[in-house]
Amino acid sequence: MISQDEKICELVVAISEVSSEMADFWQVTAIIESLGYTDRVIRQEFGFADTLSLGKYVYDNYKLSPTSKSKLKRKNAWRHLIHEIQIFIEQFSQSFVYALPLLLILLLESLHIDNQSQLLPPELASLITLATMASLTISGGFVQMISRRGEFYLKLGEPMQGRRVCFPIIYLGTATSILLGLFGLWFGFYQGQFADEYLMLAALYYLVLSLLWMLLAALGIQLRWFPPLIMLGLSILFVFLRVWVNLDALTAQIISMFATLIVVICLVAFGLGKDNQTGQISGAKAPLPRLSSLVYLLSPYCFYGIAYFSFIFGDRMIAGWAVNPAFGLVFAIDAGYQQAMDLALVNFLLLVPLVEYLGYQFIRYWYGNTKDMNIEKLSNFYGKLFYRYWLTIGITIIFFALCMAGTLGFVKPTNWSLETNLKSLFGSLGYLFFVIGLLNAILLFSLNQTIIVIKSIIPALLLNLTLGYILAHIISPDCAVIGLVTGAALFMLRSTHEVLQAMKQLDYIYYIAGY
Q: N or C: at which end does the chain have fewer Cβ atoms within 10 angstroms?
């Protein structure tokens, strides 16, 4: 969001380009009106009552001259640079903090600190891994719904209504997670492949994580910087319990998760209570939309969120189910494959915030130029968009190379074999293709092309799972990574094609996107 001072500075620069010397505030007011500003726009954009009051303010506080014009431009440039840095830090921290726990675990393994305590039993370790991936996949769809609907109301200037609307989605997500958890528990009891206490512990772990992810999404609407701070605190608490208290990995994880969940519940409840009190005082408590309407409107984003995490963890699920029955396990991921893909996932999580920021900049550039667009400018504008798009892709690839050099040089354990390194490189390549597809998805979402995103990611996910499953069972479980690379490449190519087609049909895209 651009601050009011920045908007006024931009307006002053525009006024000075019309006339560098002002006789009185009436002349300033006339120029503002000639630039197309109405009283309604001025109230919304600048917070002044009408054009005359804004003209008086500009005339009294800004000396319009060629010298002051250059100073204003320099001042505005510095403010713009600071504003861009703030946006980048905010978006980077929002995503990077979720990579922090995994990064810390890899660092502990690299420094040989994480081998102080007793390891988990193989059956329990496989169940905990499965529960973690299931919680992210199932809750990922509801997290997308919460974030999208909350962001919608935030842009409208109604944060309290946004938080109230998100709670029915949380209830629906919690009920869905409980039902799926009970089904998984019943299926585990029916199969009889795991000890009952392990199954119940894994089910509880799954429910806690699912609720935690959804509440963190709601908290992000309520308090923007709290989810990164909470995830940072979670990581610090885990490292403290694991290294200094010397607890085993599972106990440290459970204590950290429960403590974090309690803190998040208290913060969300506090925000809800404050909203209710504010609504009672103001008397403004609008009715909530029907849950069925919300589900219908946000279902594409729910499918996208589920497909997103299914794509990330699909190869591990396949590799885990393809384990040799002679080992006596139904589901187990090879330690070397797990470590290699964890390192690749760190590179992915480092790329995601950069891609989100680049997508934000690209769309802002696209939106900004639509304000002064006509038929004659469309063909030239396509060339500019085309160049900017491939520049964005190039920056992403360069940053990926830097991330790979950093993680392989500082995070990767020194005792890895050549095979493990190759698996990590293949996994990172697959995540690079996938993150370029995510960049395209961000652009298509902004252009109101939600269905096209779903049509691009679902076939790619099916190819990922099908090819990975066949190769994992015919050749080796480690070949599941080939399904990831192939599916991600398909998603990247299909989504890239759709973005380029949208750029070629700008007039049609402007119409359906609601410009």
A: N
